[in-house]
Amino acid sequence: MGQIELRDWLRRNPEPRTPQQDLEYAELFAERFHRWLDDGFGGMWLRRPEISAIVEEALRFFDKQRYWLGHFSVMPNHIHV
């Protein structure tokens, strides 16, 4: 249901979107997606140490050159930066 509903909404609301459409999107989908990620849905590729190490190295690559990285967390199926 989720992906079909999202695809239909995106078709009915093409870019550029109004602020009202952005708000509707957030209300309908953003919270749901975050809940799915936190519940562990999706591929768990980042659970593998060799893959999460690549992600961490990439995040740190330009730290203090192009940006200040600060805190980050590599979760099993997503990243918080």
Q: What would you note in describing this structure?
A:
With 81 residues, this protein is mostly helical. It is 54% helix and 5% strand. It contains three helices and two strands. A two-stranded antiparallel ribbon has the order 1-2. A hairpin with a 4-residue loop joins strand 1 and strand 2. The longest helix has 20 residues, at 19-38. The chain is extended and about 40 Å long. It starts with a helix and ends with a strand.
Q: Give the helix tally.
A: 3
Strand content: under 5%
The percentage helix is 40-55%
Largest sheet: 2 strands, antiparallel
Helix and strand content put the structural class at mainly alpha
- Average per-residue pLDDT, rounded, comes to 92
The H-and-E topology, N to C, reads as: HHHEE
Strand order of the largest sheet: 1-2
Radius of gyration: 16 Å
Question: What is the distance, rounded to the nearest whole angstrom, between the alpha carbons of the first and last residues?
Answer: 29 Å
Q: Could you give the count of β-strands?
A: 2
Oligomer: single chain
Uncertain stretches: none
Shape estimate: extended
